[in-house]
Design brief:
- 66% of the residues lie in helices and 2% in strands.
- With 235 residues, the protein is mostly helical.
- The chain has 2 domains: 31 residues; 201 residues, Up-down Bundle (Growth Hormone, Chain: A).
- It has a two-stranded parallel sheet with strand order 1-2.
- Strand 1, helix 6 and strand 2 form a beta-alpha-beta unit.
- Helix 3 packs antiparallel against helix 6, helix 4 runs antiparallel to helix 5 and helix 5 runs antiparallel to helix 7.
- The radius of gyration is 21 Å and the shape is elongated.
């Protein structure tokens, strides 16, 4: 009698056990990460994100781009830079996987990973110790980063939802903490160095989202075109 009822129970509980096992693996993978980063990796739509209702991923991406365009770093620093040089972070390395994506599902996954990398990098740059004798508005600098960070977090959240609903990609498969190359970031920086790093970062993140948007749109059109062809062929 007991053996007959076990399969029925097993069927209902196997999925729960599987989810629990996946979460244990995910937690082990990112156990060294701080709790806020752990939240991002395990659940990008964690409840401390200001998210009153779902916003389509593309719309949220537009909102983020708008914020990035309106941030004015020239008002933050006492002197304007004549030339921006450096490669911190390396944009081509972050763009390459996305450029090589052959379909929209793969592109969304790679784009998602790159956004998380930018998020982690942004955190480290925001907290960079700056040494200066000049009267500098540290709170305003931090607000620029926090504004970007919050909008980026919402964008990550919405693309996570898109992957789960449109592609059936579970969030647990995307919980590997990124290996960031932050050697380009110094332990401390004077104001000129901090300005160069900040300007570089925001220039690169704008370029990343601009190029990524083009790639995602192109793959979306290709997907629609293939879908139309399949429908025509079955008629």
């Amino acid at each position: 009698m007991t053996s007959d009822s076990t399969p029925g129970l097993a069927k209902g509980s196997r999925s729960q056990l599987l989810v629990a096992a996946i979460l244990v693996v995910a937690l082990r993978t990112v156990s060294s990460a701080p709790s806020s980063e752990l939240d991002l990796l395990l659940n990008p739509c964690y409840n401390h994100v200001v998210r009153h209702h779902r916003s389509p991923a593309d719309k949220q991406l537009n909102n983020l781009n708008q914020i990035l365009r309106t941030l004015n770093l020239t008002k933050l620093y006492p002197k304007s830079l004549k030339r921006v040089s450096g490669n911190c972070p390396k944009l081509n390395r972050m763009m390459q996987p996305l450029r090589k994506a052959s379909d929209l599902k793969t592109a969304h996954q790679r784009f998602y990973h790159s956004m998380i990398e930018f998020y982690f990098f942004l955190n480290q740059l925001r907290d960079l110790p700056i040494k200066t004798n000049v009267n500098f508005d540290f709170e305003k600098r931090r607000s620029f980063f926090d504004q970007t960070k919050n909008s980026l977090r919402l964008t990550i959240c919405e693309f996570n939802e898109t992957m789960m609903h449109d592609h059936g990609v579970a969030v647990q498969t995307l919980t590997k903490a990124p290996r960031l190359n932050t050697k380009c970031l110094p332990q401390t920086a004077d104001l000129s160095r901090a300005q160069m790093l900040d300007v570089q970062f925001f220039k690169k993140i704008r370029k990343f989202f601009k190029q990524s948007k083009v790639i995602l749109k192109m793959l979306k059109r290709k997907k629609k075109s293939r879908s139309k062809k399949r429908k025509t062929a079955t008629r």
